[in-house]
Design brief:
Blueprint lengths: L1 H11 L1 E3 L2 H10 L7 E4 L2 H10 L4 E5 L12 E4 L2 H11 L3 E2 L9 E2 L3 E4 L4 E12 L4 E7 L6 H7 L5 E4 L8 H10 L4 H20 L2 E12 L4 E3 L2 E6 L8 H5 L7 H8 L3 E4 L4 E5 L2 H13 L6 E4 L6 H13 L5 E8 L4 H15 L5 E7 L2 H11 L3 E3 L3 H11 L2
Parallel strand pairs: 15-17, 17-18, 18-19
Antiparallel strand pairs: 1-13, 2-7, 3-4, 3-7, 5-6, 8-9, 8-11, 9-10, 11-12, 11-13, 14-16
Length: about 400
């Protein structure tokens, strides 16, 4: 189940924004970032390069890591070189280790002054669910290979939890800074950066601030050279400006469609579409799919307050996925009645004329009524009674 916990956290309940937007937020709260701005045409790239003295770093703005290794980041030494690079990058799809073979579109680039790098550090602030509070994560081994560091040298990653009742304490910031191997002056700068990060994190309802790398410049100053920020989508009513910052071009069309109907949906790379209510049950269900020898095609939590139309739209979205070969419905009817789910499923299949096989487990309120609706529909349904039965029935349907 832990295999899918991060998928839900990263894709189903947060709003992602671009690097240039993340840096704007950080700068507004006092975190030092490189001078520069975003461009959407080669001509704008040349103009910004000239403003920066000719030499600049041009970075593709996409919702994916691994841009540097994929050719999405380049140091250019003249406006002309910037124009040439931008022409070959803008309007293309960048394929990185995090995007899959289809890649993501590059519509904008960030053009900024190069950093004079002495050392690269890693500094992040996120939510520690086990401790039910924020946690700083830091490492002196920052840079592009931080994931590898976490796997091969876990002792090189330091963690410092924050009690939200009292906030980030000065001694905690100093302890993190000392662990990064900074001198006295740099420790004070790092403490100010961490205080700014914590203030931003709490005031704007964030789930992640990641600065990688936090660069120690040759003059001894600290600069956030790259940054990633994610917002809790349940807090959009307090942060309405974030809705305008979202870039639908970076998301799959099915995810965009689902978000318009308030459906928590994340496209995965499997063949079994999963319709569930409740995130915990959704992750357990995806493990059941694995146990049946298959792979989930999506995370989909239809929620407790869904009506027939919302359930039908959720099923429609799954049926629209060309990778889906089978549908698994695992619903515990409490707030969401089982008969509403059944009518929504029948409605979706009637609308699409789909013949994709169905495996269904329904428990809770109005189960008998739901079974009657499905029996009368004429759909070929394999019913499961228990979670173990779900796995067996799904395996049978997959042949």
């Amino acid at each position: 189940m832990l295999e899918y916990a991060l998928i839900f956290w990263a894709g189903g309940s947060v709003i992602k924004i671009h690097e240039y937007q993340s840096k704007e937020l950080l700068a507004n709260f006092g975190v030092p970032v490189p001078k520069g701005r975003v461009a959407s045409s080669p001509e704008e790239v040349a103009e910004i390069c000239r403003e920066l003295g000719g030499t600049a770093v041009v970075k593709a703005q996409v919702y994916a890591g691994g841009r540097g290794k994929a050719g999405g980041v380049k140091l250019v030494n003249s406006p002309e070189e910037g124009v040439e690079y931008a022409r070959g990058l803008l309007g293309t799809r960048l394929v990185t280790v995090q995007t899959g073979p289809e890649g993501v579109p590059v519509q904008r680039v960030l053009v900024e002054e190069p950093a004079q790098v002495e050392r690269e550090l890693y500094l992040a602030l996120t939510v520690d669910r086990s401790a039910q509070g924020p946690v700083f994560i830091a490492s002196a081994a920052g840079g592009m290979e931080i994931e590898e560091v976490a796997e091969t040298q876990p002792e090189a990653i330091a963690r410092e939890g924050v009690d939200i009742a009292v906030g980030l304490q000065a001694f905690q910031a100093r302890r993190i800074a000392r662990g990064l191997g900074l001198d006295a002056g740099q420790q004070r700068s790092a403490a100010r950066i961490m205080a700014a990060m914590y203030k931003l994190f709490m005031e704007r309802d964030l789930t992640l601030i990641e600065i990688n790398p936090l660069v120690v410049s040759k003059d001894g100053s600290l600069v956030a050279v790259d940054a990633k920020v994610s917002l809790e989508d349940d807090a959009l009513f307090r942060n309405k400006d974030f809705s305008d910052w979202r870039d639908p071009e970076q998301e799959t069309p099915l995810e965009v469609e689902a978000s318009e109907y308030g459906i928590a949906y994340v496209k995965l790379d499997g063949s079994v579409g999963c319709l569930v209510n409740g995130a915990g049950l959704a992750m357990a269900t995806m493990d059941l799919v694995r146990g049946a020898g298959a792979t989930p095609a999506n995370f989909l939590d239809v929620g407790g307050g869904a009506d027939e139309a919302k359930v039908a739209k959720a099923v429609n979205i799954m049926l629209s996925d060309p990778d889906v070969e089978s549908i698994l419905v695992n619903i515990f009817g409490g707030i969401l009645r089982s008969d509403i789910v059944a009518r929504g499923i029948v409605r979706a299949y009637d609308e699409t004329k789909s013949e994709i096989p169905l495996t269904i487990r329904l428990q809770g309120v109005q189960v008998d009524e739901a079974r009657a609706v499905l029996d009368e529909s004429g759909l070929q349904v394999s019913f499961a009674e228990t979670l173990l039965d779900v796995e067996a029935r799904l395996a049978e349907s997959l042949g």
